[in-house]
Design brief:
With 409 residues, the protein is mainly α. It is 47% helix and 4% strand. It has 16 helices and 9 strands. The strands form 4 sheets. A 3-stranded antiparallel beta sheet has the order 3-4-7. Helix 14 runs antiparallel to helix 15. The protein starts with a helix and ends with a helix. The structure holds (2R)-3-hydroxy-2-(alpha-D-mannopyranosyloxy)propanoic acid (2M8).
Amino acid sequence: MTNLDDQARAILRQNDMGGYTLPTHGLYPYQWNWDSAFAAWGFATFDNARAWDELDTLMASQWESGMIPHIIFHQPDPGYFPGPDVWQTGQSPATSGISQPPIAAIMARLIFEMDEDAGRERLRALYPRLVDWHRWWHEVRCTHGPAAIVHPWESGRDNCPDWDIGMDGVDGSGVGPYERRDLGHVHADMRPTKEDYDRYIAIVEFGRGVGWNDAKIVSDGPFLMADPGITFMLLRAHDDLAVLGRALGEDVSEIEGWATTLRSALPLIWNDALNAFDARNLRNGAFANILGSGAFLAYLAGAGNPQLETQLLRAWDAVNYGVPSADPETASFNPRKYWRGPTWPVVNALIAIGLNADGRSDLAERLRAETAELIRTHGFYEYFDPVDTTPCGGKNFTWTAAIWLTWAS
Ligand code: 2M8
C-alpha cells in the first residue's frame, strides 16, 4: 500500500455524496454518467458494495425511453452552468437531456469478475436497465450505422477537433446572456471558448424546444455526428453485457444482434484519406479528417489494424506522456486546452485495456507507465499536458483516482 493508494481512496470518499460520486468538488458538483462508471470500478478495489451502489444510482436516473442521462442533478448547485433550470427535462431527479459514453456495462463486468458471489444479485437487479439503455443506443442513436451524438457533450470529449465541422453548422448567435461557472474554477486557456459555449447552449435550447423528443433531435437538430469513440465503447459494452447476461442465464441473442449490426457499420467511419477511424458529419457525410483519441478506442472493440497502429505511434511519439486527445501534428492541437490535445488518464486506461486484449501488452505497459508518472509527479488531476506534464483542469479528480487504483499504479 503506497501513500498514493491512500490518497486515491480518500479522494473517492471525499467526492462520495452518499451513493453517488462527484467528478470533483466545485467544477463538477453533480453525478456524471461515465465518471460514475469509472468511480464504481475504483470503489470495487476496496468496497465492492459501494461500487454497485454507484451503478445503481446512475441507472436509477433512466428515462422511460431507456436513456441514461449524462448529468443527474441530485441537489441544486449554483456552481455549475448549465444546471437543471436550463435543461428543463422534467425528470425526477432532474437530469440533462443527452447521454454519455456507455461504459457502465464494461465497468459492471470488471466489477462482477472481481467478486462474482458478492455481485451476482446486484448485477441481476441492474441488468434489465443496462439492456434497456443499450437498446436505446441501438434504436435511437445508431440509426445511421455507427453511434451518433447530438451534442459534443454526449461524446465526453467535448471540444475535441473531431466536432469542429459539425459545430460550424450550429448558430450560437441567438443565445441569450448567461454566466459560465467553469471559469471560476479553471483558467480559461484550459477550457472551451465562448463561441463553443454559445453553440453548446444553442443545441440544448433546440432539445428543450422539442421537449427532448429523441427522434426530432436526431432528424432536425443542429448537430449530428458519428462518434468513433462511442461506437467502439458501445461495441465493447454490448459484448460485455452479453457476457454478463450469459452469466445470469439470460437469453442474449438480442444484444448479440446489436453488436453484429454495429460491427458491420465500422467501415462507415474508416477514412482512407486519414488512414484511421474518423468522426463524420451525418448531415452531409463529410469526414472530420482529424485523428482523435476516439479512434484508438478501436482496440477496446477488437477493431485495431496495422494502419491504425502506425497512426497511434505517430501521434503518441510526437508527445512525451500518454496518448494525446488530438493529433499533435495538426494546427488545431493545443496541449493544455481540454480535449484539444491533453492526455486523459481515463482514456489511456481504456486504450490500454484494448491494447492488452490485442496482444500489445508492450504498448499497454508503456501507456500505464507514462500515465502513472504524470499522477506521481503532480497528483490526481483531470488531464495533463502531454508535452511538459503540466497538470490541468480540476484536482482531486474521481476518475483519475479510480484508474490509479485499478490500472495505473
Ligand atoms: C466534462 O464535461 C462537462 C460537460 O458534460 C463540462 O465540461 O462541463 C468532460 O470532460 C466530460 O467527459 C466529463 O464527463 C465531465 C465531468 O468530468 O466534464
